[in-house]
Specification:
Blueprint (H helix, E strand, L loop, with lengths): L1 H20 L15 H4 L4 H4 L5 H16 L5 H29 L9 H7 L17 H19 L3 H20 L3 H7 L4 H16 L3 H24 L1 H4 L6 H18 L9 H28 L5 H43 L30
């Protein structure tokens, strides 16, 4: 329950940033509001400019959840669970966002058909193809994390192996950041690895209790995260149209760490209610749908509603859209996809005849009728 609460908070932080804090350059020409966010929301923008840190909270939650959900699972089950979880809502979001941008190319233009089709694989980034919606960049980060953690799942998830993975990934990230190895940097993601590592260590705290070693992993990850969000805040200045200070991002990121630590130590067990489960289920569709569709809606409606009512109505509308996607797309399609993948995995596991060295039965040759000469052998 508490995990669902943190999920929806993370998603709403990102929505708040994109609707209230994203400036669209110094002139605001690329903004959905056609002017800088600090002009439209002179007070709230000071906070919203930094709530992109909801993504950092997402990554910490992902480390926690992946470690939790893969315990006792085979590599095939791990692969199936990730495909079933990520793709159904994503496919729908790609198609719906493309349709909206095709009908109203006001803030962003749609990609061509070839690039949209590649987006359906979720592998557009390694092929250097743009995403249908800019928020999809985090999905490729998540997939690289799954690829790395699959090594632990393959051997079997245990306390010792997860701790070893956290330590090795941290050390490797430091070495890669210090050197010049583009492929290793791309695979190990030193700018994001501290969040996933911290999330995994927090799950071990939750399941087995805190130890000095786990506190050390989380503390080291936090120190690296301070460095990363500080750099990103400075680099974001151009996109938001004003100079950015690092300390608000560091504070929000630290709050995210503290919230997850509180969850790991059982301090958020009082958060209960069926509505939290529903809210948690809306998080992923909300994240996928909100940015470019939301910006298009702002551009269409900004002359009909004042900024704050428009943000409120649009956020409520996106939550409703997320519920509809979850109820009528994600749940039924995920169930069908899960059944199909289960059968496919069972087929792979039950094909001993495909094993190396298995005998292959050949048909018995039929003797040629008398008087007919056998053809000469070619080999």
């Amino acid at each position: 329950m508490a995990l669902d609460a943190l999920r929806i908070v993370a998603a709403l932080l990102v929505v708040f940033h994109h609707y209230v804090g994203y400036g669209g350059g110094p002139s605001g020409s690329e903004s959905a509001w056609t002017k800088p966010a600090w002009v439209v929301f002179p007070t709230a923008e000071r906070l919203a400019a930094y709530t992109w840190t909801g993504v950092e909270l997402f990554f910490i939650i992902s480390g926690f959840v992946i470690c939790m959900s893969s315990w006792g699972r085979s590599l095939g089950d791990f692969f199936k669970s990730r495909v079933v979880r990520l793709y159904p809502a994503y496919w729908f979001a790609v198609l719906l966002t493309t349709a909206v941008l095709t009908l109203w190319p006001l803030v962003r233009r749609p990609l061509d058909l070839r690039d949209v089709l590649l987006n359906l694989t979720m592998l557009q980034e390694p092929f250097k193809v743009g995403s249908v919606d800019a928020v999809y960049w985090t999905l490729w980060v998540e997939m690289r994390f799954y690829l790395l953690f699959a090594l632990v799942v393959w051997k079997g998830v245990t306390y010792r192996r997860v701790v070893a993975f956290c330590l090795l990934w941290t050390v490797a990230s430091v070495l890669v950041a210090a050197g010049r190895a583009p492929f290793a940097d791309y695979l190990l993601m030193p700018e994001y690895s501290p969040y996933f590592v911290a999330g995994m260590a927090m799950y071990l705290m939750y399941r087995f209790g805190p130890t000095l070693l786990l506190w050390g992993i989380v503390g080291t990850s936090w120190l690296f995260s301070v460095h990363q969000v500080s750099l990103y805040s400075v680099n974001l200045s151009g996109g938001l149209g004003r100079p950015m200070s690092a300390w608000p991002a560091v504070v929000l990121m630290t709050v995210a760490y503290l919230a997850m630590i509180a969850l790991a130590l059982g301090k958020l067990s009082w958060l209960r209610g069926r509505w939290l489960t529903v809210a948690g289920a809306l998080t992923y569709p909300l994240y996928l749908l909100h940015e470019h569709i939301g910006w298009t809606a702002i551009r269409l409606l900004r002359h009909h509603l004042a900024p704050w009512p428009l943000v409120g109505v649009l956020t409520a509308g996106m939550l409703l859209a997320a519920w509809l996607v979850h109820r009528f797309v994600e749940r039924p399609l995920s169930a069908r996809l899960s059944r199909g993948m289960t059968r496919a995995l069972e087929t792979v596991r039950e094909r001993p005849a495909d094993a190396p060295g298995a005998p292959v039965e050949l048909p018995t040759p039929v003797p040629a009728p008398a008087g007919i000469e056998q053809p000469a052998q070619r080999y």
